[in-house]
C-alpha cells in the first residue's frame, strides 16, 4: 500500500519536473527566437545604414554635378529593403531631374546597387554617354594619358564649338584641361558669367575615363559666390572638408572599384591616395577638369582655348521667364 503511494508521489513529481523542464525549454527557445529575430533585424538595419552612409559620403566626393534632394528606406521584407535617393542637377541655378539612386540591402554585407544613374550607355558614334533609365546625357571627362584616335570607339569631342549656337538654353559641359591647374589659375581661365559646379581630380592611370561610372569620378563640389573674397574662403574650407571625406572613404574601404583587364587592373583608390599626397592644401591643389554651367551664348569666349583638351556636353534646359539663373 505504502509502496503504491510512494510510486504515485514519485510519478507526480516526475511529471511536474517534466512540465517545468519543457516549459523552461520552450521559454528559452522563445527568448532565443526573439533575440535572434531582433539580431537579424539589427544586422539588416546595419547594412542599410552602411549603404546610406557610403552613398551620402560618395555624394560629397564623386558624382559630377549630381546632388540629392532626399533619401529614404523602403522595406521589401523583414530582412531586405531598398535605400533610395532622389537626385537632380544644377544648371546655372536651374534644378533639373536626374536618375534616382537605389541600393539594395539585406542580411548580406554586399553593397549592391541597381541605379540607372550608375551605369552609362555609349552612343552617337562614340561621342556621347547616356543614363540607362531616362536617357539623360552625361558629360564626359577624358584622360590626357590616352591616345584617342580614329580607331578609338570613344571619340574626343569639342562640343564647346557648337554650344553657343544652342539659343535660349542653359547647358552643362565637362571641360578636360590639357594639364592640371590650381584654383587660382582656373578662376582666371573661366569667365565670371559661367558657373563652376564641380572640380575633377583626374586620374594617374592610362585608362579611358569615359568608361568610368559616375560614382567613380572623384572631385569637389563648388559653392560659388558673387563675392570673390568670400568665394576664396569658402574654397579653402570646402577643400579641407573634401580631403577629410576622401580619407574617410578610404578608411571605410568604400573606394573599391577597379578598371582594366584581368592581368592589368587599376584600383581607383590609387588616384585618391595620389591626390591626397600631392595636394595637401587648397593653395597648391590642382584639378584636371571642371563641370561648367551657364547660358549657351556665354560659352562663346571659350572657343579654341588651348587649355581645353576636350569638352563634352551634358544636360541642357530651356531657359524660362521664371528661372532665376546664378550667373
Structure notes:
This protein is of the alpha+beta class and 327 residues long. 31% of the residues lie in helices and 31% in strands. The chain contains four helices and 14 strands. A five-stranded antiparallel β-sheet has the order 10-9-13-8-14. Strands 1-2-3-4 form a four-stranded antiparallel β-sheet, with helices on one face. A hairpin with a 5-residue loop joins strand 6 (128-131) and strand 7 (137-138). It is elongated, with a radius of gyration of 28 Å. It starts with a helix and ends in a 9-residue tail after the last strand. The model is unreliable at 225-230 (pLDDT under 50).
Percent helix, as a range, is 25-40%
CA gyration radius, whole angstroms: 28 Å
Number of strands: 14
> Total helix count?
4
What sort of overall outline do the alpha carbons produce when their principal axes are compared? Answer: elongated
Helical/strand content category: alpha+beta
Give helix and strand order, one letter per element, not per position.
HEEEEEEEEHEEHEEHEE
What portion of residues belong to β-strands? 25-35%
Uncertain regions spanning at least 5 consecutive residues: 225-230
Mean pLDDT: 87
Report the sheet with the most strands, covering strand number, pairing sense and barrel closure. 5 strands, antiparallel
Strand order of the largest sheet: 10-9-13-8-14
N-C termini distance: 108 Å
